[in-house]
Protein: Proline dehydrogenase
Organism: Chironomus riparius
Amino acid sequence: MAFFRSFGKFGSNSMKILLINKNGYFNSKFLSSSTRIMSAASPTSQLNANSPQSQKIGKRDPLDTSFDNHIDAFKSKTTVELIRAYLVYVLCSSEYLVENNMKIMKLMNSILGDKVFNMLMKSTFYGHFVAGEDQVKIVPCLERLRSFGVKPILDYSVEEDLSQEEAEEREVTAATPLAAPNPSDPSHLPQYVVDKTFADRRYKVLGARTYFYLNEATCERNMEIFIKCLEAVKYSSFGTGITAIKLTALGRPNLLLQISEVIQRTRQYMRDIAGGTGNVLTHHKTIKDLEKYFGKLGDQKDVKEFLERMTTDKEGILHLFPWSGIVNEECQLSDTFRVPDPKTGQMRRLTSQIQPKEEEMFRNMIRRLNNIVKIAEELDVRIMIDAEQTYFQPAISRITLEMMRKYNTKKAIVFNTYQCYLKEAYQEVVTDLEQASRQNFYFGAKLVRGAYMDQERARADALGYEDPINANYEATTEMYHKTLTECLRRIKHLKNAGADPKKIAIMVASHNEDTVRFAIEKMKEIGISPEDKVICFGQLLGMCDYITMPLGQAGYSAYKYIPYGPVKEVLPYLSRRAQENKGVLKKIQKEKRLLKTEIFRRLSRGQLFYKPKGDYVPI
Ligand SMILES: Cc1cc2nc3c(=O)[nH]c(=O)nc-3n(C[C@H](O)[C@H](O)[C@H](O)COP(=O)(O)OP(=O)(O)OC[C@H]3O[C@@H](n4cnc5c(N)ncnc54)[C@H](O)[C@@H]3O)c2cc1C
């Protein structure tokens, strides 16, 4: 029996119908049809991670944790693809080519014309790092990965090719409040000041893409793109895939900046009135403690109302603001963030004035995010919200946590991201884990080291606030391993208590083989198996196949971060990949060595036309 699915191409009415046979593999045909992508209610949408197809246990290989086995690493690739990969890495080792890659690519495009240039890119960089132009063209890549036990995280990687000046101008405009500064506004904390020098957020960032706000219409378009990604994931990965999104794509960054600052001020306010240190939003204080603190001031009308509005969770721990409200589409920010002055009892705002237009923009951002997550929930596809710069991140993290509370009631649909290069990473994760436990929602987290280190440090130095990054690489690694161990320990605790261990799900998103090895060893030591389906691993397409592929083939939950988009529009992404590869020479050297050995092995056995054929099934 064949299942039918249709995939829409961006900006086109032509449709491709995928026929999915009973083994779960694809055949595809173009049909002239105006049918939209099938809705979640269609019978085929029942084919999800729990369907018989995906539950079929495929072949499993033993895992060599030295990640030195070139046969296992590359058996999913043709020999021509290996030669292409080797060539790409050789080109990435050239300082001149890497430094001038964008100029060279543009020059070649103008000399060769689009057709030949596209062909050239597909046989080199694009072919190696990008899965295809649209949801249909990426299917063979996803299908191949799947047959070798690896699942996709889809990212539509089209980026605007802005000059530095354009990026700076857009950012300064979009990060500045609409209202002129008011004398009653609290003065900005240095971290949240808009500074033109750091307005181009792409500065020294290779590991992540950057969105620059243009207007509400572009945010609306970004939402639609994310939704198309969700649909593509659903229909191309049997519900096992993930979509990656960035909050800066969905709204005006000024609002994230303002909320981040409020969170920082709230922490300070709580420290002042509750005592102690730490970065928690919810100090372990009860309303009674606060009433005692305000004493007679508590009789004043405003203070009384403030205390009445404050919410507590089931253990009586107080939340200064009804944070859950910020993911409601009727949220009024200016009404939310007011606190009584501890000395006078007079109410004061923790934000600068927010214009009605900005309130509307914030509600738009939240509506877009709610739309995306609702569709993810209907399609049963998970969604990972990327972590960004520290001046946005408190807001991104808080909004994501509230989305988790709202949507992760039966399973982890929304995943947050924690950057372990931050001094506060461990404490953040523990605080959020505790909130998830108290409020009984599923906690999903991607752990990364962090992509913005250089600009974070330079900005902190220039604007005069404490460097948020760990002192050195070793401290970041220690933070990563400590945070991961704590998550594993809590999962085991859930298992032992007979609770659902899936209440905590973690993605180890790292190209560092020591960290991947650490995770595997800790899983064994603590007693968590791949079959528990609570720990997964993620690396980028075209990077560290020697880690991802053996993991997938051995039955670990392994993901490739899959960029896709038209050749010309993913050039900025490719440019960053080239530069990043130059920066991680040690890993590249290992990948190059393994590629060379495997190419020679295949050629010496006459396997130039080796055809990869996998019979693995992702866990
Ligand atoms: C699937 C996936 C998703 C990702 N999503 C995000 C995301 O949402 N947000 C994000 O910020 N990044 C994200 N990243 C990028 C990630 O944060 C890292 O930049 C990248 O993976 C390199 O780290 P590593 O562990 O792979 O490699 P390693 O080479 O082991 O580590 C390099 C990293 O170590 C840290 N580091 C290096 N030197 C120092 C130092 N002197 N002091 C302190 N720390 C140091 C930096 O974070 C640097 O990026 C993602 C990566 C992957 C694979």
